[in-house]
Amino acid sequence: MSERKAEQAAGLARHDHSACIADALDVVERTCATEGLNLTPVRRRVLEILLETHTALGAYDVLERLAAEGLGSKPPIAYRALGFLVDHGFAHRIEGRNGFVACAHPGERHEPAFLICRTCGRIGEARIETAELDRSADLSGFEVERTVLEAEGLCHRCVKVS
Amino acid sequence: MSERKAEQAAGLARHDHSACIADALDVVERTCATEGLNLTPVRRRVLEILLETHTALGAYDVLERLAAEGLGSKPPIAYRALGFLVDHGFAHRIEGRNGFVACAHPGERHEPAFLICRTCGRIGEARIETAELDRSADLSGFEVERTVLEAEGLCHRCVKVS
DNA sequence: GGGAAGGTTGTTATAACATAACAGCGCCAT
DNA sequence: ATGGCGCTGTTATGTTATAACAACCTTCCC
Questions:
Q1: DSSP secondary structure letter of residue B80
Q2: B59 CA → D16 C1’, Å
Q3: For nucleic chain C, which protein residues have CB less than 7 Å from any of its atoms?
Q4: Where would I find the H helices in chain B?
Q5: Which of A17, A33, A59, A129 has the maximum number of C-beta atoms within 10 A of its C-beta?
Q6: Mean pLDDT in residue range B78-91
Q7: Nucleotides of C under 7 A from a protein CB
Q8: CB distance A137–B130 less than 8 Å?
């Protein structure tokens, strides 16, 4: 059990970010097409905004962007689009920051885990197993439905600087 | 590594709750005494309020209680006392609920993990290791300082009812 | 004793995050 | 054509959190 290799968290390492954005958009578009989901202009634009950066954006940050583009100016607009993206696994909520990030593994079923840099705010997304917690839950007769795993610390860049 | 036995999460199982409260208060008092921490009336009372229930209380829930007792009526009073308790490991913040619980293992150095029942709100606290996340972090050159691990689901009682 | 320093509480004001509730509109299936 | 549904637009409000400063008290040093 759980002998799968750990892998590097997506988002923190150097990468071709334009390709990163394009790939994610492409996957999400396909997924919506095959699953009959309605990727409306607002929803698509919110996803694009999240994809621009591997940091957590607050709903009001997103809303500001939308408003500047004439796509909606009231909080529910942003919260609803973000809700859609989160519900379908295209984005994740970062509890520790009251914010949202685009999913780094869209279209793949996964329990996300996050590495959040407290200095630069960048966020890496790893796929993680929580075998030990599950065992502990079993012992208590607890049925886990959803797991939030967020680690805060310093990313490789910020470690060097500090 | 990590072959330690998982153990049942504290707080969810049947237990003598008066003893649970008394023990925790006792440990916190001793710890404050030996570490020169100032467990003022407000701080102590907030801890007692948290200890009454194994559910997450919001800062404003706590504040309401304090106000009723003449111990303070403005948000900073509650947030400051909660901050003190969290800073010294006598309480934990539950990110997924914007709330706080008394620590179930005060005085022991530990990374907490929580089992949160979405129906009754009760919270179990387990000690957990996050070896796989740590490996993933290492691969990214990320230095983890703090980990939030919260599992939401159904506790043993609520599983039966549903 | 006088007075500076540090820590805690008291208070005002406001910032930041989130949702309830309802109105209107377009699509499309019966 | 019309009724249902999903999405957007809007008002209003609810909830969570903190900045900034004033007042007070203890401690410690001169």
A1: H
A2: 8
A3: A 58-60, 74-76, 79, 98-99; B 37-38, 40-43, 71-77, 80-81, 84
A4: 17-35, 41-51, 59-68, 75-87, 131-139, 156-161
A5: A59
A6: 98
A7: 7-14, 16-21
A8: no
Look at A140 and B132 and tell me if their CB atoms are within 8 Å: no
Q: What is the pLDDT of residues A49-63, one digit of tens each?
A: 999 999 999 999 999
**CA–C1' gap, B70 and C2, in angstroms:** 35
Subset of residues 96-135 in chain B with CB less than 7 angstroms from any atom in strand D = 98-99
| Domains in chain B with CATH codes | 17-161 (1.10.10.10)
Q: In the numeric block, which tokens belong to residue A94? A: 């970062």
Q: CA-CA distance, A34 to A36, in Å (whole number)?
A: 6
Q: Using one digit for the tens of pLDDT, what is the confidence trace for A19-71?
A: 999 999 999 999 999 999 999 999 999 999 999 999 999 999 999 999 999 99
Q: How far apart are CA B79 and CA A47, in angstroms?
A: 34
Contact: B136, A6; criterion CB under 8 Å: yes
Identify the closest residue of chain A to B152 by CA–CA distance.
A146
Cβ partners under 8 Å of residue A108, min gap 6: A127
| Alpha carbons A79 and A115: distance in angstroms, whole number | 24
